[in-house]
Amino acid sequence: MNFQTMSKQRKFVLIAALAGVIGMFLPWYSFSIFGASGSINGMHGNGILVFICFAVAGVMAYLGDQTKTLPSTSWIITLICGALATLIVVWNIIKSSDYGFGSSMSLGIYLAALAAIGVVAAAFMFRSPTDTIKGGFDSFKKDIDDRMKNTGSNTNQNNPGNTNPPL
User: What is d(CA 63, CA 67) in angstroms, rounded to the nearest whole number?
Assistant: First the structure.
């Protein structure tokens, strides 16, 4: 991986995803009860899904020809992961008032929120001029259909007892 020759889109998505992963291990909530204090990081509950979203976005940015922007399918997967991470983190911020007296949000949740927004913004702002949301979903659907068709024909060819020709 040559960071200098990497496209802007991939570079910023990778940086935002890495910042998001770091934010997952930092404290999201701090609390103090009767003089005892502690903290909870983002790797609890639905935070695991946020971590997976950041990891998938980072992998999408890393795979393929790094000098070019993300292909349509990878681009839409990155957008979905960033949007899902944003929704979950914002939901946790809204829900934080439920934790009651003596609790407060910490650095990790803010870093994760900024990183999730950064993944979406970088993937969208630096996309190829031909990429559209509809085109990305169509490409994603076509890739899934192609893989399903290829999987079906490969199983027929690899089964010597099957006398039916592949479709």
Answer: 11
